[in-house]
Structures are given as structure tokens and as C-alpha cells.
Specification:
This protein has 7 helices and 7 strands; from the N terminus they run βαβαβαβαβααβαβ. It is of the alpha/beta class. The protein has a 7-stranded parallel sheet with strand order 3-2-1-4-5-6-7, sandwiched between helices. It is globular. The structure holds NADP nicotinamide-adenine-dinucleotide phosphate.
Length: 229
């Protein structure tokens, strides 16, 4: 049975990824900030639910120490928005956004993918895969017109982390890929978004099942199509 580790697995896309991985028979290790409150996740009965705050290095290290591996698929999904950090949308633009909030979001949404992967690298082996759930907003072409400095820069950092990890882990046979999950109906995406969590998660998991190691370092959409950087 493949082992899949998912961060931010208590709601939204992460919860649905956990549900679909469990349905297909994976052993799922789920990370979330408040395991005691993760009632929907508990209802899915994954192998383990571990505490993980991806904005906190000590929490990431403790999470990783609890996992023995090998891990077949690591999904760096946890992420948030500047508004969740208390910044109103009208103050998030490049001319206004406080640098401290921007740096906080870069740590949570971007650098955490490097930290979680580094901390778990001993559990990864040839054939293991890392999927980073980024956003099209992190691309230079789409992000240019999305005036939210913290979110856009944080996902641009995740994209850079993806290509650097892919480069460093290529010879070890470990694939790393960045996914734009689509505009998805979650707390973050809102009820008017294009895709259901089921469609997004199904596409990401199906794409990873046929993913070729030679394509490590790619930026893909949930449906497997290539996204421009
Ligand atoms: N929905 C979209 O349209 C969309 C589009 C592009 C990219 N994305 C990306 O997709 C990923 C999942 O988003 P979503 O739509 O499912 O959002 P969501 O419903 O808001 O869920 C976000 C998840 O991330 C967790 N999280 C937030 N900060 C965390 C932290 N510091 N440590 C650990 N977990 C943390 C949340 O846990 P708590 O319950 O503890 O807050 C929650 O489980 C994110 O990386 C997001 O940026 C989403």
C-alpha cells in the first residue's frame, strides 16, 4: 500500500485529497494545525493525524520526526491568504502590503514546502513524488495582474522551491512538481469558484499516477496540462 503524506488535510482540497487517497487504498498520514478539532478528517480514519503548523520550523521538525517512511507521495498542500493573517484585501496590493505580513505568508505558503520536504527527505526514495500545491497566481504571467503582493510572492517562492527541489532530488529518482489546483470551491476559493474539491483532487492524483520522472520540475494544472511559469 502506498504511503501518502498530506499537509493541511483537515479541510478544503487537502481533506478531499486525503479522502480520495484513502478510498484508493493508500496509507494516509495527515498533518494539520489542530488535530483535536479535525472532526471531518477523523471521520475518514487515516492511519495517523499529526500536528503540523507549516509556519513553525519546530512544528515541522517534530512532525517529520514522527514519520518513519518510506513515503510514496508527499503533498505540500497547506496554505493560507493574507486576509487570514488579518490584512484586508484593499491593503494587499504591491503599493500597500506590509512587508512583515508578506514575509509571514512567504514562510507559510512558499518556504514551508522546502522545509517540510527537507525534514522528510530521509523518508523519500527513488520513485517517491512530491506535489506542491501552488497557484497560478505564483506565475509571472498570471500574478502580474493579481494585485495581492503577499499571496503572489508566496506562491512564486513555492514555484522556485519546486524547481530547486526537483533539481537537487533528480538523481535520487525523486520527482517534484508544482500544481495549480484550479479555482476551487473551498473556504479560500469561495462558493463561486469553477471546480469542486472532488474534481481538483481527482485530477491531481490521476496526474501523479502517470507522472514521468523525466518531467520533474514541471508546473502543471490539476488536469495535468502544463502551466506557464
Ligand atoms: N481554492 C482555490 O481556488 C485555490 C487556488 C489556488 C491555490 N490554492 C492552494 O491550495 C491549497 C489548499 O487550499 P484550499 O482552497 O483547500 O484552502 P482552505 O480551504 O482555506 O484550506 C487551507 C488548509 O491549509 C491549512 N493551513 C493554513 N495555514 C496553515 C499552517 N500554518 N500550517 C498548517 N496548515 C495550515 C488550513 O488549516 P486550518 O484549518 O488550521 O486553517 C487548511 O487545512 C493552498 O495552498 C492554496 O493556496 C487554492
Amino acid at each position: 500500500m502506498p504511503t501518502t503524506v498530506i499537509t493541511g488535510a483537515n479541510r478544503g482540497i487537502g481533506l478531499e485529497l486525503a479522502a480520495q487517497c484513502l478510498k484508493r487504498g493508500d496509507t494516509v498520514i495527515a498533518g494539520c494545525r489542530s488535530p483535536g478539532d479535525a472532526h471531518e478528517l477523523m471521520g475518514l480514519a487515516p492511519e495517523r493525524i499529526l500536528e503540523l503548523d507549516v509556519g513553525d520550523e519546530a512544528s515541522i521538525a517534530s512532525f517529520a520526526r514522527s514519520i518513519e517512511g518510506p513515503i510514496d507521495l508527499l503533498i505540500n498542500n497547506a496554505g493560507t491568504s493574507a486576509s487570514n493573517l488579518g490584512l484586508s484585501r484593499d491593503r494587499a496590493g504591491v503599493m500597500d502590503a506590509p512587508i512583515d505580513v508578506t514575509l509571514d505568508l512567504i514562510r507559510i505558503n512558499g518556504l514551508s514546502a522546502a522545509s517540510v520536504t527537507r525534514n522528510l527527505v530521509d523518508c523519500l526514495e527513488a520513485g517517491s513524488q512530491v506535489a506542491n500545491i501552488t497557484s497560478q497566481i505564483g506565475s509571472m504571467v498570471v500574478g502580474a495582474n493579481f494585485n495581492d503582493l503577499p499571496y503572489a510572492t508566496s506562491k512564486a517562492v513555492m514555484n522556485m522551491v519546486t524547481v530547486q527541489l526537483a533539481s537537487q532530488l533528480k538523481d535520487a529518482g525523486i520527482s517534484v512538481v508544482a500544481f495549480h489546483p484550479g479555482w476551487v470551491r473551498t473556504d479560500m476559493g469561495g462558493s463561486g469558484a469553477d471546480l469542486s474539491v472532488e474534481e481538483s483532487a481527482q485530477g491531481i492524483l490521476a496526474t501523479m499516477q502517470t507522472f514521468e520522472h523525466a518531467d520533474s520540475g514541471s508546473f502543471l494544472r490539476w488536469d495535468g496540462s502544463v502551466h506557464p511559469w
